[in-house]
């Protein structure tokens, strides 16, 4: 027969195991969501980048007028595609930065929890 102290210790150990299991599941779900969001952003940028020549060709004129020393991006022909790709590339950069920041924070938090200092 167990004493009351032994039963209490067993219950507390089991509660801690359940908490740890729930935390690991939450971390896995968070990582999966982060990876899925990153993959979706990357897929959107690559897909639109591949589709952009066809989209831009519908909006541009068939004749090209030499604009002098100015870059072709500043001519009136087909600038919407470049602007869209630039915006999407910026959004992808923001997503990658946030992903790296989140992963770094989790890594630091995991090291602190492993040392037992931050509990």
What this model shows, in words?
The protein is mainly alpha-helical. Helices cover 78% and strands 0% of the residues. The protein contains 2 helices and no strands. It is rod-shaped. The protein starts with a helix and ends with a helix. The mean pLDDT is 77.
Topology:
Blueprint: H1 4-59, H2 79-115
Helix pairs in contact: 1-2
Mean pLDDT: 77
Assign a percent range to the helix content. over 70%
Q: Give me the strand/helix succession.
A: HH
Counting H and I runs of at least 4 residues, what is the number of helices?
2
Distance between the termini: 33 Å
Proportion of residues in β-strands: under 5%
Structural class: mainly alpha
Low-confidence stretches: none
Radius of gyration: 27 Å
Shape: rod-shaped
> Quick one: biggest sheet?
none
| DSSP summary, beta strand count | 0
């Amino acid at each position: 027969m167990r004493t009351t102290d032994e039963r209490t210790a067993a219950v507390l150990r089991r509660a801690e195991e359940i908490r740890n299991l729930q935390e690991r599941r939450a971390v896995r779900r968070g990582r999966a969501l982060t990876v899925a969001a990153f993959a979706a952003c990357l897929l959107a940028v690559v897909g639109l980048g591949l589709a952009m020549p066809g989209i831009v060709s519908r909006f541009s004129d068939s004749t090209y007028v030499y604009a002098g020393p100015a870059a072709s991006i500043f001519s009136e022909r087909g600038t919407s595609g470049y602007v869209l790709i630039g915006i999407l590339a910026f959004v992808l950069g923001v997503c990658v930065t946030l992903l790296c920041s989140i992963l770094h924070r989790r890594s630091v938090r995991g090291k602190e929890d492993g040392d037992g200092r931050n509990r």
